[in-house]
Amino acid sequence: MQGVVWVVLAVLALLLVAVVYGYNRLVFNRARVAEAWSGIDVQLKRRSSLIPNLVGCLKVYMAHERDTLEQLVLQRGAVQAHEGDDPPGRSVAESQLSAGLLRVFALAENYPELKADNGFLDLQRTLSELEEQIQMARRYYNGAVRELNVLIESVPSNLLAQLFGFQCATYFALDDARDALSPKLEF
């Protein structure tokens, strides 16, 4: 009889260890998603902070493109209004800002003196590098989301996820503006 009690206690102890281990894996992956999101957030804020400098530089050369520049400023305002939002809410505003940057740099091709301005070229280069960093941070975030979602949806960790209220995270989609932001070399 005493042997059966020890077996039951051992099984319960193993079950408790499995639950604690599974719960800790879920918590770890949720924290990794939050950390990855903060990496994206930092890069997006850096990009947003460059918009006033870009607009200031462009105003000198593109005076009759006022509507485009105003639209870019409005898109930056929309991005700032969505800071702190979840990835789906933020990605719409960020994609619109990316599209606005694409339009501005496409229009800049029509202004040879602007394309020769070192300040503009530095801003363009910096924005291009930031786009690459945003894409790297996005890939890391989406990888962390994938790992968390797999844990939440696969057996047996899905039972713990339901029990403790873990929710699937949302991927962050963003248009890739790197190519349009890269300086064009013409010979």
From TrEMBL:
<keyword id="KW-1133">Transmembrane helix</keyword>
<dbReference type="Pfam" id="PF04011">
    <property type="entry name" value="LemA"/>
</dbReference>
<dbReference type="InterPro" id="IPR007156">
    <property type="entry name" value="MamQ_LemA"/>
</dbReference>
<dbReference type="InterPro" id="IPR023353">
    <property type="entry name" value="LemA-like_dom_sf"/>
</dbReference>
<protein>
    <submittedName>
        <fullName>LemA family protein</fullName>
    </submittedName>
</protein>
<comment type="similarity">
    <text>Belongs to the LemA family.</text>
</comment>
<feature type="coiled-coil region">
    <location>
        <begin position="120"/>
        <end position="147"/>
    </location>
</feature>
<keyword id="KW-0812">Transmembrane</keyword>
<keyword id="KW-0472">Membrane</keyword>
<keyword id="KW-0175">Coiled coil</keyword>
<dbReference type="GO" id="GO:0016020">
    <property type="term" value="C:membrane"/>
</dbReference>
